[in-house]
User: What shape does this take?
Amino acid sequence: MPSASFAPTRNDPLRRVLTHYRFGSADPTTQLGHGQFWRATYTPDGAGTLHLDWRAGQLQYRAFGAGADWLVAQVPAITGAFDAGHTFETGHPQLLTAQRLTPPVAFGASHMLYHELLPVILGQRITAGEAIRQWHQLVRRMGHPAPGPHPTLRLPPIADELAARPAWWFHPLGIESKRANALRVAASHAHQLHSWVALPLSEVAALLGHLPGIGQWTVGSVMA
Assistant: This one.
């Protein structure tokens, strides 16, 4: 199992980075426990599952499926290793106090644009709880079992299958035609989404904004 040096603290900074990849605590595609992280997704090379384990005080990782090598290569970005951080030298006193009292925060980058886009689309114009419920239902109906040993982890919907669903198919899940069509548009551009992650962030944002049903809120949420 490959490994990398990592010294967890009482506040578990790695968990704080990884929790942002879950869409709800029971996300069928992304599970985060005490010192462990699992994610099933699609990569440019195919389906894959990534497992991170830092319970022993050192980050260890392994991956499964056709996308395993690609996922392993993303581990530094996923865990926030490339985020240099930012320190405010001036600002409102409350901001500076919060900065002093709060442990440093790192932001990771999954490079899984298709995966990140789908649940954010579901979050358009509805409550977070409703969006989480719809995402979980969609994955359970359309997601295939993930590669590897995890017994319950599931992949996001296959892009071709999602794009082929008529808008009415989504209605029993509470997903009206406008969001259903945006999901189908994202799925029909899945191949391009895999390649866009290599572009500068401003270009990615502009390209996403040209997709029907993908507005500024969705773009901003995905890029974050």
The beta strands are 3-4, 30-33, 36-43, 46-53, 59-64. The longest strand covers residues 36-43.
